[in-house]
Amino acid sequence: MFVGAVLGLAINGGSLLTLLLVPTGEQVLFPANIPLWSLVYELIASILFAALFRYGRMVWGVVWVASGIVLSVAILTYGSADLGFSPETAQHGLFRVGYSFSSGIAAAYLVQVRPRISRWCIPFALMPLAFFMWPVGSVAVDILSILFVFPALTIALAYFETDQRYIATELGGLSYALYAIHHPIVKQADGAGLLYVPLFFAIIAVAWALERYFDRPLRRHLHFLISRRESSPD
User: Fold this and answer.
1) In which domain of life is the source organism classified (predicted)?
2) Are 78 and 89 spatial neighbours (Cβ–Cβ below 8 Å)?
3) What does the alpha-carbon distance between residue 14 and residue 31 come to, in Å, rounded to a whole number?
4) How many CB atoms lie under 10 A from the CB of residue 37?
């Protein structure tokens, strides 16, 4: 996230308050790197998860349902699910991220308590994709996709075994860094034509390097500090 803020400032300019994750824009919360808004909300959700962990799954069940209801009302009000990135819709971004975050918690729990399924069932799990044959721009499609289709696909696919676990793990780790840095670079290269092809691979390479040599060692070090603190006598 910090690297994404630095990169956004280097390419697009802006306030140094972005480095402190303080919104500074009038049209969008983070002009230097627009996707930072969701990363900030995910950080807030992670802190809340740690704070509420002791209270069990029921709390996140309430968050899941409440966020889904409020998000649905917001989508109906604005006529779009593209909420959270601007000052006008910032409060609704909390519920947008709250629902997706709690959906992830639900998926992780369900996978733990139920047996995995053979990969041969994957085609059946992908059948709900036919849902997207509906007209684009429909508010009803947005709500149904966010509340039901996407969570159902995520949970269903999480049950399936894969022989390429290393690849799946690497892609999962790569996704966060890629999301954090892609927007300033792509925006700067707008209209580059065929140069998008090497740029595509360059962004992936940079994201992989950030995850491998920056994010992963940092997570490992934090895990070590937490483990040492938990094992030390009071």
Assistant:
1) Bacteria
2) yes
3) 7
4) 23
* Residues 48-85: tens digit of each pLDDT: 888 888 887 788 889 899 999 999 999 999 998 899 99
Q: Which of 35, 40, 38 is nearest to 20 (CA)?
A: 40
Rounded Cα gap, residues 80 and 109, in angstroms: 30
How deeply is 132 buried, as exposed, middle or buried, from its count of CB atoms within 10 A (0-12, 13-18, 19+)? exposed
> Is residue 7 within 8 Å of residue 184, measured between CB atoms?
yes
- Nearest residue to 215 (alpha-carbon basis) of 39, 8, 15: 39
Q: What is the pLDDT of residue 4?
A: 80
Q: At which residue do the structure tokens 């998860």 appear?
A: 49
- Within 10 angstroms of residue 46's Cβ, the number of other Cβ atoms is 11
Through-space distance between the first and last CA atoms of the chain, rounded to whole angstroms:
34
The set of residues, in sequence order, having a beta carbon less than 8 Å from that of 59 and lying 6+ positions away, is 52
* Placement of tokens 């792509």 in the chain: 186
Are the CB atoms for 36 and 84 separated by under 8 Å?
Answer: no
Radius of gyration of the chain, Cα coordinates, nearest whole angstrom: 20
pTM across the whole model:
0.80
How would you class 97 by CB atoms within 10 Å of its CB: exposed for 0-12, middle for 13-18, buried for 19 or more? buried
What is the DSSP secondary structure assignment for residue 29, as one 8-state letter?
S
Q: How many residues does the chain have?
A: 234
